[in-house]
Amino acid sequence: MDTMNTYITTPIFYVNAQPHLGHAFTTIVADTYCRYRRLCGDEVILQTGTDEHGDKIVQAAQGAGVSPREYVDRISAMFRQTWPLLEIEPDNFIRTTDPVHIKTVQAILQRVYEQGDIYFSEYSGLYCRGCERFLTEKELVDGKCPDHQQAPEAITEQNYFFRMSKYQQWLIDHINSHPEFITPERYRNEVLSFLREPLEDLCISRPTSRLTWGIPLPFDDRFVTYVWFDALINYLTGIGYPDGENFSRNWAVAEHIIAKDILKPHAIYWPTMLCCLGLAPFRKLHVHGYWNVGETKMSKSLGNVVRPAEMVEAFGADTVRYFLLREMSFGLDSGYSADALLMRQNSDLANDLGNLFSRSLTMVAKFAASRVPAAGTPTEIDRELRDAAVAMIDTYRREMDSFAFNRALAAVWEVISRANKYIVENAPWDLAKDTDKRERLDTVFYYLLETLRLITLTIEPVMPATAVKMRRALGLDAQADLTTQAVWGLLAPQGIITLPEALFPRLDTGKKKKTEPATAAQNTTKIMTAAENPEDENLISFDDFKKIDLRVAEVVAAEKIKKSDRLLKLTVKAPEERTIVAGIAEFYQPEQVVGKQVLIVANLKPTKLMGVASHGMVLAVKDQGSLSLSAVSSQVTPGSKVS
Ligand code: MSP
């Protein structure tokens, strides 16, 4: 049976990298789920934090030229500061360098040691520095760690081991008797299949000769604790283990959210550690897939990350949250693209939801003096809208409960489309012309407003700021509550409606805005806006823009063109080799441009310049008599699209 409180966690993130979209996604999921449970009346604690010990951190600190301490403080603060930008409000932010965490980890180690579940032995194995763990032969793909694309090192050393194997059968039984323990099911199956082989004991120490940045073993100071043994315990220390009311109230209702990269530590190491401590296992493990760019996982080591702060700056937190939750099917991988984000912003948010809301409220302001009218007798078409809105709440709850955020949102957007259609079918502007149709008009308005009220409830966990604006405009109290407010007909007649500011504002295409500097993303938004505003003839539509094939090209050779002072013949890779004649010879010597990555228009009709055929155009900026070639801020694959 569901208890009335829930304890939700994200992984604690390594501080060897700054926060990126992958970290943001898990944390947005956790925050959304937390808000959703609160909306259902639960008491919820949301915990996130940073994982600060281990090899990787020391290496990163060395790379940055600072001490590990200074380094972890700096990056941990970046994580902490990123979450509010995304409207994520953790109740607890834990760091593995917190003194209380260190004390608890040591107390646990001591206890497990005394209990006889930790022993000393020699071990030879294949160690992956990226994973910070020994890998089995089976896990390797072509001799390499599939996550880090590196061959592991063969290491032999003396170490301490946790008797994980002792708990194997207990774990199998627990997973079998608790179908919801690991979801989605594919990950549960993956874990069960892994457990079909005998489980090895877990090496839980590192000699201080190799690593000092860790928690010393309380019973042998020649060793520090293995990062995973240290890190997983954060879930206990964060709520005050071993004593305290917070711990006893919340441990049994813990739900961990992670991506599939850290399934094994969470689904195998962690429950066995808990069992050895005599603690109940966590309640649920929710496992999602990767955000990929192209075919590869977005990750710092691959250098293909998207920064959440930049996304928020360009689109706003609500749009980013909506996009990520709508686009990914929880459990499967998803590809990130800025185009898809723009599409969602323009189509789902500005067009569907934004329009429905502003059209409806504007009409109520204009034709009903900004008051919620009382509904008359409903007709078939009204009942249909009402039934769809009520059914939406059920579907929404079911899908949110099972972490199918994309399907929950799809159900809401179906009703948004239906409501937009309802406006067209009922043409309130025509009804308003005829005083005999007053009752019909009032009914249509009431049904629209009531549908909007239910929609507002559902989007609250996903887009909290938008929901607040919508609630205010509809004259509702600040506190949304799904348990009492999700029934049809609660909007009180005579309530006052206030015209909202645009929910998803479009950039003003007027002259003032045009002169303001804008980020690349804002520029794109401007273009999109123009597409919807045909009156402005100076602007091109997004479709027009998309016709231009902009790419990054790498100059592999350059030479002067005889008899021309202005032209250089460039051979570029984009990704195929092609010749482009560029009018840059007065400003660049051939040898200065070789190796540069520049932006080109790749689909210009070929033309001949001084007898040389040019296949494209290099973009450059002229400024006060000098010329500067366009460039990208970091090296990319030649031929990459610019969008
Ligand atoms: N410190 C460990 C976790 C210890 S938890 C007791 C760790 N840290 S991490 O910084 O590498 O974070 C991994 C997590 O970040 C993933 O499980 C996921 O939550 C998130 N993601 C990182 N990259 C991601 C994607 N490309 N896509 C989706 N999630 C990603 O592992």
List keywords for this structure.
alpha/beta; 6-stranded parallel sheet; 43% helix; flat; binds 5'-O-[(L-methionyl)-sulphamoyl]adenosine
Structural summary, described in words:
The strands form 7 sheets. This protein has a 6-stranded parallel sheet with strand order 3-2-1-12-13-7, with helices on both faces. A 5-stranded antiparallel sheet has the order 19-18-17-20-23. A 4-stranded antiparallel sheet has the order 5-4-6-8. With 643 residues, the protein is an alpha/beta fold. The chain is flat and about 90 Å long. It contains 23 helices and 25 strands. 5'-O-[(L-methionyl)-sulphamoyl]adenosine is lined by residues 11-14, 22-23, 25-26, 51, 231-232, 234, 258-259, 261-262, 290-291, 297-299.
